[in-house]
């Protein structure tokens, strides 16, 4: 049943009730920021909505955004919605061919170009010259109409333009960890229901502060930061750049902070680079010191004011969650996906066991199929995949549950544990299926390892490629350090093999010669491994690795 009040109604309430309250804080370089009140945000959005209508766009037309996180993303989304259109956000790291595909597939009629990294010129050929182009103030250069010029010359759209619950609000194009990105359709009814549920679940309030830095083109940030703030209010800060991230988070002092497992791991490794893990562990065991030390570490990370921290998008090692909780951070793991607008499972104060992704929200239904697949029925469920009716039909059971593609197990109290992807299972020469994700999750618990990828289709045993922690990479030219690390990895391989079933035991670790990255297309924009890409890169070397017969190899 669609909500009686939709997300734009919440926005109009804030425009009046919170008119002069600061809503968005945008860094603009040199340590300077610009604050935007709700009144200012809505005024600029209304003017841009009027401009979009003047371009001759028809109701329901798609308007794209290619930008990193910034205040104008929020304003443009509101302008698109108020104007009667549908948003298509593109990951700011996508290459020209993917940008071109998404714009063509979605039939976008206009595009906002915003804050982008150096080298954005290589992305530009993916945008048709005939398409209406608009530039945010932080865009590398003005292409098409400049936002500030439009705002200065166009009268604001009046009234309270409404959208129906069944009208499309946005298309979420998956980050493409496998195959071609798919457009996930969400209407205003489902977006509102999910945002309202998250607000209730995490008790998001007008007094909360959050830092927006995970890609807004991804459902996690879009739902938990942008849309929840549309419903509940709050103060949203933005990050300027990677090298200013510490200053950005210190400025925000967030009360709610979400991240992905790889970044939680990098934060931890940054702490270990300043204080070795054994020393910190000893200090945290001292009753009179542990709270003081934990608070000091969290303050250094800018997280000492956080009342709720979340991890999502990919599995996070249970030991990593436990480590943050020892510091005093309330880190909770959740589970959801683009197809349910991030509204599925979340750990709670009473259900937060490391290794489990929490329990379903009150109005979410879940069951495990006979094949072990997690099936979800959520108020945030998608309308379907854009232009893919057959795939949409295949993705649901006859009674309306979405087939997640994830394997899972549930405890009697509802806690869910994800045990891997249905399609990621592979067989070694031993003839039994190996689920790589749980093994990778355990491997990644070691402080020397940042990421791993378990493979070995048809081989005598599985193997794992590993990426070393960032602070260790510069030391690998030192023969003594390298030999010591090889010994450490060999010992960890033994620990891993004692942890898994006999047929899942690994023959070796292969240390990657360079870190995996979004740029090398070995990671998605949300920093999940692109398994097929990594396996393809490894394929020419696999036979020689097995022939070497050593527990640790260097690629």
Question: Which properties best describe this structure?
Answer:
globular, 17 helices, alpha/beta, five-stranded mixed beta sheet, 555 residues, Luciferase, domain 3, eight-stranded mixed beta sheet, Rossmann fold
Concise overview:
Helix content is 34%, strand content 23%. With 555 residues, the chain is an alpha/beta fold.
Radius of gyration: 24 Å
Instruction: Work out the helix count.
Output: 17
How do the strands of the widest beta sheet line up side by side?
A: 7-6-5-3-4-8-9-19
Give the class from helix and strand content and strand pairing. Answer: alpha/beta
CATH architecture call of the largest domain: 3-Layer(aba) Sandwich
Overall body shape: globular
How much helicity do the residues have?
25-40%
What is the CATH fold-level name of the largest domain? Rossmann fold
How much of the sequence lies in strands comes to 15-25%
User: How would you characterize the largest beta sheet?
Assistant: 8 strands, mixed
Low-confidence stretches: none
How many domains? The number is 4
**How many individual β-strands?**
27
CATH class of the largest domain: Alpha Beta
End-to-end distance, in Å?
Answer: 55 Å
On the 0-100 scale, what is the average pLDDT? Answer: 92
